Amino acid sequence: xxxxxxxxxxxxxxxxEEAQQYFPGGVNSPVRAFRxxxxxxxxxxxxxxxxxxxxxxxxxxxxxxxxxxxxxxHDHAHIRDKVxxxxxxxxxxxxPNLLSNQLGQLILDNHRYVERLRFVSSGTEAVMSALRLARxxxxxxKIIKFDGCYHGHVDSLLVKAGSGLATFGTSSSAGVxxxxxxDTLVLPLGDRDxxxxxxxxxxxxxxxxxxxxxxANNGLLIQDRSWLECLRIKAWKHNVLLIFDEVISGFRVGFxxxxxLYDVQPDIITxxxxxxxxxxxxxxxxxxxxxxxxxxxxxxxxxxTLSANPVAMAAGLAALELCLEPGFYERQASRTDQxxxxxxxxxxxxxxxxxxxxxxxxxxxxxxxxxxxxxxQIDPDNMKYFKMIHHELLQTGVYLGPSGYEVGFVSSxxxxxxxxxAVAKICAxxxxxxxx
Length: 436
Ligand code: PMP
Known about the structure:
CATH topology of the largest domain: Aspartate Aminotransferase, domain 2
Low-confidence stretches: none
Subcellular location: Cytoplasm
Shape: globular
Organism: Neolewinella maritima
CATH architecture of the largest domain: 3-Layer(aba) Sandwich
Helix content: 25-40%
Subunit structure: Homodimer.
Family: Belongs to the class-III pyridoxal-phosphate-dependent aminotransferase family. HemL subfamily.
Bound molecules: 4'-deoxy-4'-aminopyridoxal-5'-phosphate
């Protein structure tokens, strides 16, 4: 398949060339390099509402939404105004501030699954801190994670399944020591027997089970509630902590995230993305009893120079105020459902092997027609279709994240007209991809 460029990309291409002299691979986060799709990455100049414009003047309907944080789209007036008001008063003091109290209160008053929070500056930092807390609280070192879940670039989670049944992990990145990886046990999602076997064999050594309750980093692997309930019950039974990594699902599928959607109470929840309104914010939360293990009250050390800085707190507060407007999540979910259903109906009519798993305002273009619940059910060969669809969509002004393993996000800034336009263009892109 030849990828014919019908939009100007010269300025992006030139800037990308230049960027390679400054940054490894020209980027500051790997997937931005567009390695799994066609052409150089686009340098985005600005974004407003549901659209962003690149340095060559191309305008795109954006379904990447900065990888999830922008639940209200780009440059939302309420967020912008609150941020600008805050910036005018100084950007960081390294002291407690009123805005962090306000954001803390807003969250805790509206989220039944956490009693205390600690703000940090990224999802990775939230997960790293939550693991340390779980280890400090239980006095144990091993953790269980699941194949197909991503938890940021934390050493002990950059681990893939090794060989064997109850598998000790092996590192999936250079620089992660094998003795760190060995403390991570990697299991397939949904395998209850293997989970029980592993917990029985190692229970005196296991600090926690960590899971993305809605795995959304390796496709969208929607799980049954009964699986999450099983994790909860087994964690109680074996006296280990259950961590829900809700960096994507938190404040996205509902204010209470997946915990609320499925009504399953984890011991610790990690947050990121939406919580910061487009600024670098993460958080982790738990019961008061568990959170009192954190310094300065408890023995588990965790700190941050710019943690809970007022500007990021202002953005998060403004974003979450908008999320609490009546009907916000219902509207997001029903519009996303409508879009996904229309795309799927077209694929079915045409006999194209594609379906669109979706939950809340998260969707994924999945190849094949069978439900996909585990990472190993994704056929990497099908990524050639994604590459073509992605390319075709860029030519027609729709921006998806540059990998077929990434999910898309609908924001409240996407209008009905935007969504109809997206359906038509995605269907047209399928025609090109599946005809090739
Ligand atoms: N956990 C999950 C579930 C995530 O999706 C991500 C980021 N995609 C992270 C952790 C890491 O967050 P960050 O990129 O902000 O460090």
